[in-house]
Specification:
Blueprint lengths: L4 H11 L2 H6 L2 E6 L2 E6 L6 E3 L4 E2 L1 H14 L13 E8 L9 E10 L3 E9 L8 E8 L5 H4 L8
Antiparallel strand pairs: 1-2, 2-6, 3-4, 5-8, 6-7, 7-8
Length: 154
């Protein structure tokens, strides 16, 4: 059975982000209501070796990426949408030796801006590590997708 088109688009988007490959971030789920990415725990992302707590920068990367890729859940086709604004409120540190999940949804889409919100969690989404809101600029389809195909009268 093949995966949904939204999951495939999210995976394709994630696969071109080198920093996400290095961190091991993967698509956990994707549907029109939102996206969940998974950041696996590793020693390389520990911010405090004495406690084993994940560095906040890794969680920021997870949440920026989750919000940015959540745009594929609501747009009919892939568009370039760079981050305009991102706010993260940290509620508590992530527990050591546990993966972190990031959920994001697009709650408003305009012609030029997409507004997102979400949260990072470990075992229970009702006990968030952080909350996030973000705004992403719609720049349209990449140039190579806007060109007419060769065979269409060329």
């Amino acid at each position: 059975m093949s995966e949904s088109p939204i999951v495939e688009r999210a995976q394709r988007f994630l696969s071109v982000l080198r920093h996400c490959q290095v961190l091991g971030i993967s698509v956990h789920s994707a549907e029109p209501e939102g996206l969940v990415l998974r950041l696996p725990y590793s020693e390389q992302i520990v911010g405090n070796p004495e406690t084993g707590v994940i560095h906040g920068g890794a969680i920021t990367t997870l949440m920026d990426t989750t919000c940015g890729i959540s745009t594929v859940c609501v747009l009919p086709e892939f568009e370039i949408c760079p981050t305009l604004d991102l706010r993260i409120d940290y509620m508590r540190p992530a527990e050591p030796n546990k993966d972190v999940f990031g959920f994001a949804e697009c709650y408003r889409v305009t012609e030029t801006i997409i507004f997102t919100r979400g949260y990072a969690y470990q075992d229970n989404p009702d006990e968030p590590i952080a909350h996030v809101v973000g705004a992403f600029m719609r720049m349209g389809k990449p140039a190579d997708l806007q060109r007419p195909s060769k065979g269409a009268g060329q």
